[in-house]
Amino acid sequence: MVTTTTTVGELLRDWRRSRRMSQLDLSIEVGVSTRHLSFVETGRSRPSPELILRLAEQLDVPLADRNTMLLAGGHAPAYPRHELGDPELAPVRAALRQILDGHSPYPAAVVDRHWQLVDANPALAVFTAGAAPELLGAPVNVLRLSLHPDGMAPRIHNLPEWRAHLLNRLRQQALTTNDPMLYELLDELRTYPGGAGPAAPINDAVSSVVVPLRYRHEGQVLSFFSTTTLFGTPLDVTVAGLAIEAFFPADPATAETLRALA
């Protein structure tokens, strides 16, 4: 994890080490001398905002942390952070709503970078039915809702397999972003039961290519696979953290049930 630091040089050094890059590797990729990069990391040289952004882009630093670097270097942030309800993000809201509505009658949800629920279509109710009210109070964390024993977990037919998939995905996200909130969430979710025992047998065709979610609903086991959609070229911190999690039926029986529920 990136530690709490106060200088831009320390931040750059921590991100470089987290990406397993040497000063030589990074200097070659960015086109600066190793000596100059060393001076920046030790505080002997004050980097320009342009250099900070070039280094941050090469290190694939999230937009919010790029702003932190700029502030630590004595420069203004480069990326705005609007609330999703602000007028500036009206086209984003419209695009999200179009995708959610267009995905019906299949479940879809918008989550932020900490997996908190931002919006969803009505079909998501197939997953939330039966969950404890305290897990559905805002802000709803969809990973906590999924794996908590009072949430979706008792109805996930292949819980060990699905749990392993979610924890691995969260672990990779935490490693990539160095976000302490994601590490805290990962530690919490690891304490939930459901990881022991063999996965339930799966015979549908989709299981040979993706990890399916098999979910018990009113006496029937529904089978899904999921996709994640991100904004391709975000320049706003809020937009950069949004993702659309869409679930598709993995067999005709599931598709028929979802159409009937709609």
TrEMBL record:
Classification via PANTHER family: BLL4672 PROTEIN-RELATED (PTHR35010), BLL5781 PROTEIN (PTHR35010:SF4)
One of the record's GO molecular function terms: DNA binding
The protein's name in its UniProt record: Transcriptional regulator with XRE-family HTH domain
Top-rank lineage group of the source organism: Bacteria
Family annotation (InterPro entries): Cro/C1-type_HTH, Lambda_DNA-bd_dom_sf, MLTR_LBD
Provenance organism: Asanoa ferruginea
Alphabetical list of Gene3D superfamilies matching this protein: 3.30.450.180, lambda repressor-like DNA-binding domains
Pfam families per UniProt: HTH_3, MLTR_LBD
SMART domains hit by this protein: HTH_XRE
The HTH cro/C1-type domain, residue ranges: 12-66
